[in-house]
Design goal:
This protein is of the alpha/beta class and about 425 residues long. Helix content is about 40%, strand content about 15%. The protein is elongated and about 75 Å long.
């Protein structure tokens, strides 16, 4: 294994996680950014990043960073960092396909003494039980003799300009004590917030997967409370504000739970648990609650429309926001699509308006074509699904103007006071 000063890095996957990492390393160490998407590579070479996680200025600052979609260009690298997606399939089962393919690619070019570090979220054991054997098979090398591994889970928060890759404490680990030290020192080159060296790769994997499982369960609790309080005729936000006056009350809010982490990671943990003969109850109960919120939102909307004598069949509804969170273009695992599917079940015609998203990506991923601008006085209901800044700036009067004289305004994100809206979670 080479020293840190002799290292050339290859970042495998240049999405929301990989690109910011490559840019930061590229300011200090020879770094090769690799992605199989040729259009993505050409975009980055031109100095643009459609994810908006890095600016053109930041791309220019990475003087030691180059981009490629050719695997052969990575032969000079001796440290490989894997940042590919780890989604779930239609049956809520972990899909390791991108991770296995990345491992196969590394196996074709890895050399003796090289180190592979995985950042993708997985269940405990996946690195050493699923990925490393692939590299061994393809390369013919022996793990912890000819090559080594580490795991350092990503903690990227898309759209967050305060908590960046360098300012979030990084968990690190290695397959041997020496490699653990090497991986930790490698990340300390760029992570100003510091690092935490876990005792093993499995510990680091488990730490990552429970971070988002914990958040998922907390949000599920608040979602269930919102359903209960709605039946009681109590304003959930007012309850949460009152409870929040206690110093140790956690400030979670109800809503849709999507994105590449919180709505996905718990299934990785439960999959592993079930493979060991344990059937989780609390974690999956939280998942069921959160996965059902889209249907709940539409059921509440339909009831409110009926009470106002608005015809449901053939009604026109504007859904404001498609991304999984505010002020970013990230569409991964957005649960707004659950609302759209449920509206379709009622034969309701839905328009989607989101100034942050690429219309082409929305069409490709979800067969949704957002409107360029919503029409005024056109909708029987308006659902504020994502708290984009543009929607705040439009104001309550501007949003109300999109509805017909009699309409329902459902504010999922508490953008406006309860008295200004018709429905809130």
């Amino acid at each position: 294994m080479r020293t840190l000063e002799q290292s050339t890095l290859a970042i495998i996957g240049l999405g929301y996680v990989g690109l910011p990492l490559a840019v930061e390393f590229g300011k200090h160490i020879p770094t090769i950014g690799f992605d199989i998407n040729k259009a993505r590579i050409n975009e980055l070479k031109s100095g643009n990043d459609h994810t908006l996680e890095t600016t053109p200025e930041e791309l220019c600052e990475a003087k030691h960073l180059q981009y490629t979609y050719q695997l052969e260009d990575l032969r000079d690298a001796n440290v490989f960092i894997v940042t590919v997606p780890t989604p779930i399939d239609e049956h809520k089962r972990p899909d390791l396909t991108p991770l296995i393919k990345a491992s196969e690619s590394i196996g074709k070019i890895i050399k003796r003494g090289d180190v592979v570090v995985y950042e993708s979220t997985v269940y405990p054991g996946a690195t050493e039980e699923d990925c490393i054997p692939v590299i061994e098979r393809v390369s013919g090398l022996t793990f912890n003799v000819d090559f080594f591994a580490g795991y350092s889970p990503e903690r990227i928060n898309p759209g967050d300009k305060e908590h960046r890759v360098t300012t979030i404490k990084k968990v690190t680990s290695g397959s041997t004590p020496e490699i653990a030290d090497f991986v930790d020192a490698l990340y300390r080159r760029i992570i100003v917030a510091g690092t935490h060296k876990a005792t093993s790769i499995k510990v680091a994997e488990a730490a990552k997967v429970i971070e988002n499982t914990q958040r998922d369960l907390n949000i599920a609790l608040i979602n269930e409370l919102a359903v209960i309080f709605n039946r009681m005729g109590i304003d959930t936000e007012a309850v949460l504000q009152a409870a929040g006056t206690k110093w140790n009350f956690l400030p979670f809010r109800p809503g849709l739970v999507g994105g590449h982490c919180i709505g996905v990671d718990p299934y990785y943990l439960t999959h592993k648990a079930q493979s060991l003969g344990y059937h989780p109850e609390v974690i999956l109960a939280g998942r069921r609650i959160n996965d059902g919120m889209g249907a709940y939102v539409v059921s509440q909307l339909v009831k409110a429309m009926v009470k106002k004598r608005i015809q449901v069949d053939g009604a026109k509804v504007l859904v404001m926001g498609l991304t999984f969170k505010e002020n970013c273009p990230d569409l991964r695992n957005t649960r707004v699509v659950d609302i759209l599917k449920e509206l379709c079940e009622y034969n309701i015609e839905a328009d989607v308006y989101d100034p942050w998203v690429s219309a082409e990506e929305a069409q490709h991923e979800y067969n949704v074509t957002p409107v360029a601008e919503p029409n005024a006085n056109h909708y029987d209901a308006v659902i504020l699904a994502v708290a984009h800044q543009q929607f705040r700036e439009l104001g309550i009067e501007g949003i109300r103007a999109l509805g017909k004289p009699v309409h329902i305004l459902y504010d999922l994100k508490y953008l406006f006071p309860s008295e200004a809206t018709d429905l809130r979670l």
